[in-house]
Amino acid sequence: MEPQKDGASGGSDPTLPAEVQAAASNPRHDLGDYVLVRRLGRGGMGEVWKAWGRQLRRHVAVKFILGAGDDDRERLLREARVAAKLDHPGIIPVYEARSSDQGSYIVMKYVDGETLDRAPLTLRQKVAAVRDAALAIDYAHAQGVVHRDIKPQNLMVESSSGGQSSFPGKPAERSPAEPVRVLVMDFGLAKQHALATSLSVSGALLGTPRYMPPEQALGKTHEIDARSDIYSLGATLYELAAGVPPFHGDDLVALLTRVVTEEPRPPSRIQPGLPADIDTIALKCLEKEKVRRYPSARDLAQDLQRHIDGEPILARPAGVGQRLVKWARRRPAVAALCVVSAAAAFSLVAGGLWYSARLRAALTLAEQRRGEAERERATAESQRAEAQRQAEIARSERAASQAALAESLTSQGDAFGGSGQWERARPCYERARLIFEQQGLPSVSAELGMWESQTRAPPPIQTFVGHRGVVYRAVFSPDGARLLTAGNDKTCRLWDTRTGRQLRVFTAHTDAVLDVCFLPDGRRFASVGRDGLLRLWDVESAREIWRAPACSHLNQAVVSSPDGRRLASGCCASGPLTVWDAATGNAVRTLTTRQLIYALSFSPDGRAILSGGTGKAADLWDIESGSQVRSYSRHGSEIRSVAFSPDGRQILTGGLDMRIVIVDRDSDELVRCFSDTPRPSPARRSRPMAARFSPEAGTRRRGSGTPRPGPRCARSPIRTRWCSPHSRPTAAWR
């Protein structure tokens, strides 16, 4: 279907603007979907028109390439595509590129305003305009586009009167506080204007010489990059502040020579009274060497914003050394003569002094070396004899020390065996026997201890080998068929409890994984670690479902509600107790505690949660209200394990005071207390690290033993037994 044409021969639309109606009656202004309203400007290769879009009924800007060949039209289309991909509020967008009988053209957004060089702005507004242009250019650089022709004529200042231009005729002054909106145009397009006006040329030399950097003036197109645009932004700021560009003139060759070889004068010397910051920022942009300019257009924009806000800028004026280098570049012949003369004079004086000092030093050094050689010879003989004596003493002491260590290990194994701890006795005997054999001593006592420990302590049913370092946690799946472990090697590992084969490794954590728990469906599990993140995993695919920042330090505990709909995590470094939605990973409730949390447990109905930690008391929380219901204080040290009875009526707590306590949930009345009998050596007293109710509502103590660094941990190669959900001791790992 043919698009409806406003103002066609069939009659004009009275709702259209008057200028559009007048233009629509002229067949030469008809571009099909667009009506050319009036010409905005004309250059050497093209012209720009204000036009009316028939389809969307809005004003647009149409730019023609006149008299262009196929190569020029292809370049126009390619560069229009580049400009069209830039979506930034500070860049005039390109809508489309077309060809017609009147020439190839591109359609852009129409901006009612004036170019930056014609807009009546205060110095503050000009600085803000360059800042906004720099931010837009920085966005273009991030998209891989370099403008190559930034100048005041390519920066459009939008009218402040909301559609009625403030600039035609004698423009009205803006308020100094009124914000200025600047838009960058002509992105990536080569310009060719008359030399006498803008000195813009095309071909090998792209851009406008008054604003182009030295590398562009020399035709080194391969060196043109984002910092080349920063130079042009600095030249624009220079002209807006001083009233003239850094370099100007009608002779193109002379102008390009000045751009490459001369240093610009500070703007304040042309326009007295300008702030020193403007000099510093503009001259940093106009450095001949790219590495001395701002690293990015955003850095330039940030320094301009600091100047506007009255804050110190980061750029610094050139020092004495840098000014000398620049002077030498401007006058290389004079500088070279000065350097050669100074070097020659210095060489004559320094050479004479050096030769005289060298003769005196040679005589003195010869005498010193002769005496030192004699002393070193005597010292070496003495040291050799002493080293031999010390080595013999060290060998004797080491042999005695190793023998004493072997005897100590044998005694320690005997002590463990006497208390029935044959698993702990066995490594003592093994190490003692090895030391005895290395020292050539009889190892009868260690051999007997090894035999007895092997007969009294049967080997584990299954051993899981894979973790590197400490294993902090091991939990069975709900069906008991798989074992999940967490370790100091930043991994969680899934094992087959029947074969001991490793099934999967979960590696997203960036630090040690301290706790894991299966959800009731057995298809998902949660993990927390020292990296401060709570993660939910899919067991079968080893895919991370979601993650959440559970703590700013390290997470010590995580537990699932009985229905699997919620998770709870606790922090071991002054963090909150957080309840999470297991489906979305969103925090449902954050409970503020007065202690560092080591253990958590949901009530059987999932409405309450029990926490234990460094406060020597277990706290009961109502999840819905977020309030603390009760505190159970039955321990003299920190609590490492908490649990509800299957019916939810009793509370179990285990602490490092070697006591396991069961109390009534509602009345806090003591039901029962289990305590280890102290042995002669306090270091060998058993401290409960984990305790749980059995499914039959009795009690079972699990995982007690002499504590090692961190809760619920085992160090390689120590083997630790774990019970499956069916109360069978089916797993051990190394």
Describe this structure in words.
The chain has 13 helices and 33 strands. With 734 residues, the protein is an alpha+beta fold. The strands form nine sheets. The chain has a five-stranded antiparallel beta sheet with strand order 1-2-3-5-4. The protein is flat and about 110 Å long.
Q: Which segments are poorly predicted (pLDDT under 50) over 5 or more consecutive residues?
A: 7-11, 162-172, 190-203, 677-686, 698-734
The CATH superfamily name of the largest domain is YVTN repeat-like/Quinoprotein amine dehydrogenase
Rg for CA atoms: 42 Å
As for the number of domains, it is: 4
Give the strand content.
15-25%
How would a textbook summarize the main sheet?
A: 5 strands, antiparallel
Average pLDDT value? 80
Secondary structure tally, helices: 13
Q: Would you tell me the structural class of the helices and strands?
A: alpha+beta
Would you tell me which CATH topology of the largest domain applies? Answer: Methylamine Dehydrogenase, Chain H
